[in-house]
Automatic annotation (TrEMBL):
Keywords: Cell wall biogenesis/degradation, Glycosyltransferase, Golgi apparatus, Membrane, Transferase, Transmembrane, Transmembrane helix. It holds the Pfam family Glyco_trans_2_3. One of its GO terms (biological process) is cell wall organization. This is glucomannan 4-beta-mannosyltransferase. CDD domains: CESA_CaSu_A2 (cd06437). It is an enzyme of class 2 (transferase). It catalyses: GDP-mannose + (glucomannan)n = GDP + (glucomannan)n+1. InterPro entries: Glyco_trans_2-like (IPR001173), Nucleotide-diphossugar_trans (IPR029044). One of its GO terms (molecular function) is mannan synthase activity. Belongs to the glycosyltransferase 2 family. Plant cellulose synthase-like A subfamily. It comes from Prunus avium (Cherry). Residues 190-393 form the Glycosyltransferase 2-like domain. GO terms for cellular component: Golgi membrane.
Length: 540
């Protein structure tokens, strides 16, 4: 009797000495697909389409505004009071304000000479300039090298100070804050900040400082970054494309329309009074620069971006260094948004329109939605709809909107337009890490306050190439030694395998030919997963 009951209740596919595992999984899938998977996936599609539209209208707005700015807006020298500072025959250099240069460092063996030399070469009266090297290095040898370099420049009459701390508390924010407490900087009116790989031109201060001197409501003048190693490999070329849009469009639009944008942490000059009024440097997130900028803006200070004032810098040329940098740049803003959103809402010193711009456009769409929709829609939801054909994705959401967004994003680097398609695939891979970091920042868990200094190589690659060119060719080719395990990134490899399965299913059963995109995206995930993205040399 019991045996008969068992045969009635259990489907035939579950019977037998050796269970048909594939049949069991197929049956379970059919049982839960209609009541659970299909409705849930449809909701995900609707949410993804809504986020895509938000990003689309944001990019469209930015595109329209930047065209108007380029065609009709006055140049910064015409919008603001501007007059070059000249030496007075009677007063000498006393009409030049005293400027502090801060160079934060951490074990910067390859680039410390570059940044110190560039700062010491600035065209500014030496008695009106204080250079402060804030060295948090933990390597005694590097600390000694940096100190000796400072002493070398001091012997030439440069007012340069070498500062160290007992601990790295607060990381970069802590170092900058500690530097402003020194008694010898109390008479400084402005502070210019340069990371260790940045190389300002000699006329940098003479072009930036007059805006601050003649416009007392301006707190920050930000210069554009230019990259000395953008052609080193495909990885650096992809970064250049992303950052050029940020500077060419986002910073320019923010400066022209709201006199607000996020401070980039380097290559900018601050009014020290504005820093103090905003509450000084804070280390509550990994984006101390953005934190200070938002707080200063909420107190009514204005920012100015100068696109034609450019400072040379270096891009991360290894995939691991780039991943750590992107984690910090994605996690930090999300974490700051969590901590400051109510403060922005409650402030009474800025207009309602500016509050909306900061909360919705600056933070929500650009720092959160942009990462999430790229990953969830194009790497998760769209591939899953191939396995669940009952869920329909409209062609405008799957193809047209993303294409327009991509075209709008590409305006910053026209020389790399031929790399546009691979840039899309690479950005989809990086959206995995950016989304993960954004969620960590919003939830304030795990690695929310992790700070890993971006590795800088300076001219080491160029120097090694020059040395290799001088040496005779070896008789036998020696493979470079590296640990293969250090290059493996399992998360990328896992998603590559997932997309490959979806692509194969679409090739056999699909009707939309998504398999072309899926196979190309799979290859990109695998290239990144095996750590070879930094070894590919792009075509010019």
């Amino acid at each position: 009797m019991a045996e008969t009951t068992t045969r009635v209740l259990i489907p035939e596919s579950f019977q037998g000495g050796t269970y048909d595992i594939a049949g069991q999984m197929g049956l379970i899938w059919e049982l839960i697909k209609a009541p659970l998977i299909v409705p849930l996936l449809r909701v995900c599609v609707y949410i993804s389409l809504a986020m895509s539209l938000m990003l689309f209208f944001e990019r469209l707005y930015m595109g329209i505004v930047i065209i108007l700015v380029k065609l009709f807006w006055k140049k910064p020298e015409k919008r603001y009071k501007y007059e070059p500072i000249q030496e007075d025959l009677e007063l000498g250099s006393s009409n030049f304000p005293v400027v502090l240069i801060q160079i934060p460092m951490f074990n910067e063996r390859e680039v410390y000479k570059i940044s110190i030399g560039a700062a010491c070469g600035l065209s500014w009266p030496s008695d009106r300039l204080v250079i402060q090297v804030l060295d948090d290095s933990t390597d005694p040898t590097i600390k000694q090298m940096v100190e000796l370099e400072c002493q070398r420049w001091a012997s030439k009459g440069i007012n340069i100070r070498y500062q160290i701390r007992e601990t790295r508390g607060g990381y970069k924010a802590g170092a900058l804050k500690e530097g402003l407490k020194r008694s010898y900087v109390k008479h400084c009116e402005y502070v210019a900040i340069f990371d260790a790989d940045f190389r300002p031109e000699p006329d940098y201060l003479r072009r930036a400082i007059p805006f601050l001197v003649h416009n007392p409501d301006i707190a920050l003048v930000q210069a554009r970054w230019r990259f000395v190693n953008s052609d080193e490999c495909l990885l650096t070329r992809m970064q250049e494309m992303s950052l050029d849009y940020h500077f060419t469009v986002e910073q320019e639009v923010g400066s022209a329309t709201h006199a607000f944008f996020g401070f980039n942490g380097t290559a900018g000059v601050w009014r020290i009074a504005a820093i103090n009024e905003a509450g000084g440097w804070k280390d509550r997130t990994t984006v101390e620069d953005m934190d200070l900028a938002v707080r200063a803006s909420l107190r009514g200070w204005k920012f100015l971006y100068l696109g034609d004032l450019q400072v040379k810098s270096e891009l991360p040329s290894t995939f691991n260094a780039f991943r750590f940098q992107q984690h910090r740049w994605s996690c930090g803003p999300a974490n700051l948004f969590r901590k400051m959103v109510m403060e922005i809402v409650k402030t009474k010193k800025v207009t309602l329109w500016k509050k909306f711009y900061v909360i919705y456009s600056f933070f929500f769409v650009r720092k959160i939605i942009a990462h999430m929709v790229t990953f969830f829609f194009y790497c998760v939801v769209l591939p899953l709809t191939i396995l669940v054909p009952e869920v329909y994705v409209p062609i405008w959401g799957a193809v047209y909107i993303p294409s327009i967004i991509t075209i709008l994003n590409s305006v910053g680097t026209p020389r790399s337009i031929h790399l546009l398609f691979y840039w899309i695939l690479f950005e989809n891979v990086m959206s995995l890490h950016r989304t993960k970091a954004t969620l960590i920042g919003l939830l304030e868990t795990g690695r929310a306050n992790e700070w890993v200094v971006t590795e800088k190589l300076g001219d080491i690659v160029k120097n090694k190439a020059a040395e290799a060119a001088k040496k005779p060719a070896p008789k036998f080719f020696k493979r470079p030694k590296f640990k293969f395990g250090n290059r493996l990134h399992l998360l990328e490899l896992g998603f590559g395998a997932f997309l490959f399965v979806c692509g194969c299913y679409d090739y056999v059963h699909g009707k939309n030919n998504y398999f072309v995109y899926l196979f190309l995206q799979t290859i990109t995930f695998l290239i990144c997963g095996f750590g070879y993205v930094g070894t590919i040399i792009p075509s010019s």
